[in-house]
Amino acid sequence: MTDEGIEIRVGIAEGAILRGKGRLVTAGLGSCVGVVIYDADGRIAGLAHVMLPESPPRETRAPQKYADTAIDWLIREIVEAGGCPLRLRAKYAGGAQMFQGVKMEALRVGERNAEAVKKRLADRGIPVMASDVGGHQGRTLWFDLPSCVLTVRTARGETRAL
Predict the structure, then answer these.
(1) Residues with active-site annotation
(2) Helices 109-123 and 67-80 sit at what angle, rounded to 10 degrees?
């Protein structure tokens, strides 16, 4: 628990919804992308820790694991919790290229994850308010409600507020 409410930790390939004061946190973002969708006026936010750009052809039991299904899962859960679809906004970070100098497309997971998140948000008409993607460092994210500030700390200890 924080001074500002509860703290919810989101693991790899997981997601969570927060309503009211509090903080959503995820760590270990290398090639993964942490995507937050929120309704600031409704004080509702969701965070998914996306591992891969596309879900398998069959239905998955872990929709938060994939960019295409995580975005839809977040939207659905936020709206069911009382969020307004027209007020949804997004922030995301991660998508590092952890294997420097690699040219093989299959190993460029970070770049593909970031692009998949960006595309799915655009397809769903959700404005992106800030992002911090790429590079070669892992990240940890904190998203605070009601301020809607996404704090990003890199593996080197650099911190930025988005």
Answers:
(1) 32
(2) 40
